[in-house]
């Protein structure tokens, strides 16, 4: 088999030295390719790179702005929450004070009503006692007069005399009850 190096060596060409025409054509093709890449393709890549950098930086700026806005809203929310808590505490304290005032008013009204009812009851009891005493005096007087008349054996129809007898009898009864109560 004959190799390309053998064929070239037989023609008298040195395989280590390049052909100048090939070098020139390759150099021109490389220059044209370099020109096309630099003129048309590199600007597209550069624009794409610039757009991407701007998009990333813009995204970062937007994220920072959103973060700052979120922080501001959080602070505003915290302030509103604190204000609402303060207001709720004020309302709660006001309600407690109103409740205590209402309770005190109700207690005062109840005490007044109790005192009024007690006073009315005392007046009613006193009038009932006076009526009972008067009723008992007349009944005791009648019974005492009848009893004294039976004991004495004569009728005590004289009102002045019977009233004196009844009064003496009741006075003796009161003295005896007072003497028994002090013992």
TrEMBL record:
Membrane topology: Single-pass membrane protein
Top-rank taxon, per record: Bacteria
Molecular-function GO terms, alphabetical: proton-transporting ATP synthase activity, rotational mechanism; proton-transporting ATPase activity, rotational mechanism
Transmembrane segments: 20-37
Keyword Cell membrane in annotation: yes
A Pfam short name: ATP-synt_B
Record's keyword terms, sorted: ATP synthesis, Cell membrane, CF(0), Hydrogen ion transport, Ion transport, Membrane, Transmembrane, Transmembrane helix, Transport
UniProt function note: F(1)F(0) ATP synthase produces ATP from ADP in the presence of a proton or sodium gradient. F-type ATPases consist of two structural domains, F(1) containing the extramembraneous catalytic core and F(0) containing the membrane proton channel, linked together by a central stalk and a peripheral stalk. During catalysis, ATP synthesis in the catalytic domain of F(1) is coupled via a rotary mechanism of the central stalk subunits to proton translocation.
Assembly and oligomerization: F-type ATPases have 2 components, F(1) - the catalytic core - and F(0) - the membrane proton channel. F(1) has five subunits: alpha(3), beta(3), gamma(1), delta(1), epsilon(1). F(0) has three main subunits: a(1), b(2) and c(10-14). The alpha and beta chains form an alternating ring which encloses part of the gamma chain. F(1) is attached to F(0) by a central stalk formed by the gamma and epsilon chains, while a peripheral stalk is formed by the delta and b chains.
Protein's name according to its UniProt entry: ATP synthase subunit b
Organism of this sequence: Arthrobacter psychrochitiniphilus
